[in-house]
Amino acid sequence: MTTPTTPTTLVARSPQDVLAVVPVVLGFVPQDSVVMLTFGATSAFHARIDLPPPQDVPEAVTLLLDPALRHLVRRVVFVLYTDDAGLAVHVSGALVAAFEDAGVDVVEALRADGHLWFPLLPGRDGAPGRGVGVPYDVSAHRFVAQAVVDGRVTHGSRDELAATLSRVPERVAAVAAVAAGTSGGPGQPAAQAAWVRSTVARHVAAGTVADDGEAARLLAALREVGLRDVAWSLMGRETARDHVAFWTDLVRRSPADLLPAPAALLGFAAWLGGHGALAWCAVDACQEADPDYGLADILSQLLVHAVPPTEWDHDGRLDDVFGDPA
């Protein structure tokens, strides 16, 4: 899975720096993963995929190489997070061969197990020999400290990040009780659209959350694709973080049958804000509730292809590339 990122100036000069950069740019500490940091791309992005078993290595290489070539990446660094030294050597060998054959320079490749890092490109100047581990601890690294100052939250794992979207049973029950007696708002389509627009815009601008009545009414309304798109049209890169906060609250309060729309909208806002890992978590939540939800499929394609948020077109031209977002 590839993820466009918001530009962050972090100059890594050592393996220790690289290991500190990864959780900051991803938003969580990877486990059993392959991470690719890219440099010189037309649009900044980094990527993480699950560490593949040997039979899936060719597919994993393609998943990382395709967007790198599409965005004219010149240099990459790979970090493999695993205790399995043999698998790391196999995967990194396939990656290095494919990328260098394609003209992409592999600056560094490391394996990290949470305590030690190991070189996967033996023979580099100053690098320890293969199998020789070097202790690392990035908890007090300057990149981590800067992330805190910048308000960037780093979670202990992807599961921990996904848990920030977990629904809260008592809050879900409160909204469900109201939703059972509502159709989503005023009866006329124009009035419904106006209500959705004003409600979402007001809360996003003020940084507030909907009460149970508003939440139930809004979630019921969003079952209509046209009304969901009214809320979608309010998003922009400059307000993405505020939309993330608003839709995260609604996801955590949404009954299962009303979850797809707010989850997809949360994911889109996260993508616009350059938080690809959170966007993927929202896609997973949406597709668990409705595997065929169109907007989640569009969002997953944006993420896989590392489409940068700068390409978001308020006139809806993403539809021309990825199809109907129903």
From TrEMBL:
InterPro entries: DUF4192 (IPR025447)
Short name of any one Pfam family annotated for the protein: DUF4192
Protein name (Swiss-Prot/TrEMBL): DUF4192 domain-containing protein
Organism of origin: Nocardioides koreensis
